[in-house]
Amino acid sequence: QVQLVESGGGLVQPGGSLRLSCAASGFTLDYYAIGWFRQAPGKEREGVLCISSSDSSTYYADAVKGRFTISKNNSRKTVYLQMNNLKPEDTAVYYCRGTAGSTESWGQGTQVTVSS
User: Fold this and answer.
1) Is the pLDDT of residue 1 over 80?
2) Which of 62, 84, 96, 114 could form a disulfide with 22 if both were Cys (CB 3.0 to 4.6 A apart)?
3) String of b and e for 30-51 (b: at least 16 CB within 10 Å)?
4) Is 54 strand, coil or helix?
């Protein structure tokens, strides 16, 4: 069974950092692209960053360039989203999504709140 589980969210002050994790089970990251998405209250879900099976990363959101990075550890089957210099507008539920061909799987999300 393909499953993704996010963790690492929480409350952080503006300017702080968090690292989110997306742990995969039931499949190997060698063949999957993993993307991070976020959904703020009252807004549509938007793409943030994606990492391909060959480790190339793609930014979907200009607002996070220079602050967020994505990486993965294939042996641990985990993808990380490092978020630095967080801003209140980064507050959202963050989701990871795994895709391989027509297969798609979403995690349940983790809440990130940036507030003083």
Assistant:
1) no
2) 96
3) eebbbbbbbeeeeeeeeebbbb
4) coil
- pLDDT at position 110, please? 98
Strands (E), 52-109: 57-59, 68-73, 78-83, 92-100, 103-106
What are the φ/ψ torsions at residue 113 (nearest 5 degrees)?
Answer: -125, 125
Summarised one tens digit per residue, pLDDT across range 75-109 is 899 999 999 999 999 999 999 999 988 889 999 99
Rounded to the nearest 10 degrees, how much is the dihedral formed by the CA atoms of 89, 95, 100, 103? -130
- Percent of the residues in the chain that have a pLDDT greater than 70, as a whole number: 100
Cα distance between residue 16 and residue 35, in whole Å: 22
